[in-house]
Fold:
Amino acid sequence: MTRHLLSIDDVSVADIHQLFETAAEMHDVQKREVKKLPALRGRTVINLFFEDSTRTRSSFEIAGKWLSADVINLSAKGSSTSKGESLRDTVLTVTAMGIDGLVMRHSASGAAHQVAGWLDIPVINAGDGTHEHPTQALLDGYTLTRRLGSLEGKHVAIVGDLTHSRVFRSNIKSLTKLGASVTAVAPPTLMPSGVGPWSEEAGFATSYDLDAVLPEADAVMMLRVQKERMSGGYFPSPREYTVGYGLTRQRLGTLKPGTPILHPGPMNRGLEIAADAADAADSLILDQVSAGVAVRMAVLYHLLAGEEAAQ
Amino acid sequence: MTANPDEGRVVLDADDIARALTRISHEILERNKGAADLILLGLQTRGVPLAKRIAAKISEVEGTSIATGSLDVTMYRDDLRSNPTRTPHRTALPGTGIDGKTVVLVDDVLYSGRTIRAALDALSDLGRPAVVRLAVLVDRGHRELPIRADHVGKNLPTARAERVRLRLVEVDGLDAVSISGPPGGAEITDVPSQEAAR
Structure:
């Protein structure tokens, strides 16, 4: 394992499997009466979020607490930064309090990379702009592996607002590392620019035709339409988006029986995913949430518990 | 994992190990006055197959099946911070849980006692057994904590610098306990604990 987790590029295939193995053990802690492991006793982790988040922040918080770390949540949005403090000063101030690990989210792509260069403690990227969200991709891969076994040769369709999705960028890397073949499906306006050469280099397929892809898929990952990052004009109306790219009840019927459905949340029910799909028996959406805690425990454990972290 | 029988001096062969486990099985039964409420919990990794073997022997004698499980203490080790992190192994308890039961911890080699300390901590997070006992195949001495075993297969006087190695058919392809000297024959005064080297 590397010192930081900023991108899926930081972890090898072997690292990913090791994280999954550890996560499987962490997963059992959720079922215990005493949900506590002493691995990070005496360590302090700060969740520094410059952007709104409920599930990722609370997931990291629970993960840290179940490993006995002291976890402090700092919403930097609208506090020191709005008073004019630079990112560097905010981060240095916070870590000067004696912090052992930093989990951070920022609306600027590459922010976590930059911060990691200023600090000598492990930094975990909890989402940076439209760049990466590595722990989300790891928990998606973990959830899928638990359901499907090895992902070698499995076909995963990732559908939705790809332009604005860091989850998509991280998942492309991790799913292809795990041997899956990925088809990225989006309307032309939400397909990232320059996807042609990128998909060739990274080894994934692209399509504008969801109905052609769904019957071939072994798993479907629906992504949220990120209205807050849009300046408008990506599609004529929500209704039209749903007709072309929503996982509707009709489309549900075209999937192979038992095909798992994923969504990183929060969902726009009725827009990219119909209630019938979100609540279907094959929906893994809540499994993703519980896997999130286990995977983040594994990440915190491997980055913070051992020898390298103690230096 | 390749098994090299030449590595070190073999002090217990397969027959010795089988006899020691049979004796431990009878001792456990005698001490527990039967097999009621008995759970054999093997410590990862080599304690797990040992626990299963002892359970099989007890079942033969008593005619009932004995609950077994595995316990991993990685997260509870006191040397967690001085080593690179290791992937935890499986902790699996019998469906009945351990509350009110007689739990016999089974480990391969008892040395510093630090693994057992960690195991006791782990157990208290998992439930409240009525009684906890300890069975080990080999006790090599050099305790660093006030811990002793209730059932010992073989007491093996060793020097700290020596290395005791247990190999089991289930993991290594053969049954043997061997002792090898310090590397290069040099006297090493500060040896990391046996358990930490696993």
Summary: DSSP finds four helices and eight strands in chain B.
